[in-house]
Amino acid sequence: MAVRPVDLREAVSTVVWGLSSYTHTELTSLGKKHRLPIPGEEAGTKSQRLEACLEAITDGDLHQVAQRLLDSSHISLHGADRFALEDAVWEAGPVIEIMGRTRRDIAHAIDLEELIHRQDRFEGLLEQFWVLDNDPMATWSGSSSTSRRALIHRFVFRNPGDWSTDDFFEQLGAYEAGSARFGRFLEGLVDPGTLPDAEAQSRVVEAVNVVLVKAGARLEQTGDRDGYPYFQLVRTGPGAVRRPKTLVFATTVKPDIRLVSVVDNDIEVLQDMDQILVYDRPVGPEGIRWRNLQQWWQEKKGIDDEGEAKKTLYERLLKSMPADEVSPQRNFYRIYHENYGVLARDLPALLPEVWLHWDHKTVRQRGVKALLNHRMDFLMLLPHGHRVVLEVDGGHHYATSRAYEGTVRGDRDLKLRGYETYRFSSTELGRDQIGPLMKRFFAGLFDLHGLVRTESESPSQSS
Q1: Is pLDDT of 366 > 70?
Q2: Angle value at C-alpha 415, between 426 and 208, nearest 5 degrees
Q3: In this prediction, what percent of the chain has a pLDDT beyond 90?
Q4: Sign of CA dihedral 280, 286, 287, 288
Q5: Does the pLDDT at position 131 exceed 80?
Q6: H or E stretch including 121?
Q7: Cα(first)–Cα(last) distance of the chain, in Å?
Q8: Contact status, residue 234 vs residue 220, Cβ threshold 8 Å
Q9: Chain mean position to CA 249
Q10: 380, 388 contact by CB (below 8 A)
Q11: Strand 387-393 relative to strand 375-381: parallel, antiparallel, unpaired?
């Protein structure tokens, strides 16, 4: 169930009020470090300053503030406060719903002992997602025999077999938790950091997926870590997103592609990187961010200097777009990077001229069976498998009824393939308000998908 905006505000308010334990000077420092609108000491008492801070946080800024609080190494968040804030942030984004019956079926399908490769790693995972020290009497006695931690040590670690997986999930509170937390916990159970045993990972994933398929989801391998598979919870069924295998983008000509292994579906692009870019690395659960793209470019081109890699990559992507200096597509690309700058290395990369369909024959040769809408103006691969297409439409897209039919048909096809499509008219991108327009759009898009927005220097500038 998606958390209402008021829940996010309540979670943020709880954490901000907790800052009253800091001194006035420390509050001023925290405000600067984390871009919290905490007024100066002249605003009054600490309570008055924190109240003013909360009043200054708009609904549109709530998600960013919450994420910065979670990421902070200077603010101590413990137990229920941290988990409430996490739940509010996670549930505000896209969530795969996992109902209570499905969770119990998952518990019945897997053996608890199969999950525990090393006690310390397993306990570390539990601390990440659940409140283990939940006995208030431990504060007075210094220890507890009834806390979740103590019970897990007794019935899971010291006496294997005393608890079933169902008992274990019940004690953790996994059946009452939000779907976002439960989904992340499932991913953690088969993460190589928790379960560094490929065969055990495979057995658990297979058992879980038999149950998840009924809920329209599955644990899918999206990469490797230290030689072990890495799994992500993804949707299944019509329109479900599959893991990208080959990205052909930033093209100045039609790609010259051949299949080097028909059996394995391995392709080879015969042009060099001045004409075609091919991102051939696994796309992990975070999608492709600017830092991923820059690292790939730096290694492909053998560039030692990070600033030079950033600058040359920016220029190479710009080169793939229409050469007209005032082209709406170029303006779109430039302003995205001007708005989100150097810290946008942690935001999704804006990939231009991405090939969706490819056919060695021309439309005239193929006839009525020709694949249309070969390229996407821009593609963003967001966390959790979300694909966002951004199209800049000229007048020709709507000049005739046939052209309009082709445009809307292409949008339908993209949606059925699991893409979100957003269209911008070339006229609105050529006006003075393009900057504010794009700021509002990306603010909404990133908030929708749980991404933190940043503003800093342009990636075309040096570090």
Answers
A1: no
A2: 140
A3: 40
A4: negative
A5: yes
A6: helix 119-129
A7: 42
A8: yes
A9: 21
A10: yes
A11: antiparallel
Token readout for 103 is 């969770």
Query: Is 325 within 8 Å of 336 (Cβ atoms)?
Result: no
Contacts of 19 (CB under 8 A, 6+ apart): 27, 30, 50, 75
pLDDT tier, 458 (very low <50, low <70, confident <90, very high otherwise):
very low
Instruction: State the greatest distance between any 2 C-alpha atoms of the chain, in Å, as a whole number.
Output: 82
Collapse the DSSP code of 143 into the 3-class scheme (helix H, G, I; strand E, B; otherwise coil) and give the result. Answer: coil
Tens of pLDDT, residues 206-251: 999 999 988 889 998 887 888 899 898 888 765 455 566 778 999 8
Query: What's the token pair of residue 272?
Result: 């060099």
pLDDT at 401: 64
Angle in degrees, CA 83, 87, 88, rounded to 5: 120
For the cut 50, the answer to whether the pLDDT of residue 122 exceeds it is yes
pLDDT-derived band of residue 342, with 50, 70 and 90 as boundaries?
low
Query: Which residues in 205-220 are b (16+ Cβ under 10 Å) and which e?
Result: bebbbebbeebebbbb
Q: What is the chain's alpha carbon radius of gyration, rounded to the nearest angstrom?
A: 25
Return the C-alpha torsion angle 352, 358, 360, 362, nearest 10: -80
Tell me which DSSP letter residue 273 carries. Answer: T
For the entire predicted model, the pTM comes to 0.61
pLDDT at 308 over 90: yes
217 Rama sector, left if φ>0, alpha if ψ -120 to 50, beta otherwise: beta
Under DSSP, the state recorded for 86 is: H
Residue 134, SS3 per DSSP: coil
Side-chain-facing half-sphere of 363: CA atoms under 13 Å: 5
Picking from 64, 20, 126, 134, the residue whose alpha carbon sits closest to that of residue 453 is 64
Place of tokens 């749980």: 450
Alpha carbon 215 to chain centroid distance?
Answer: 21
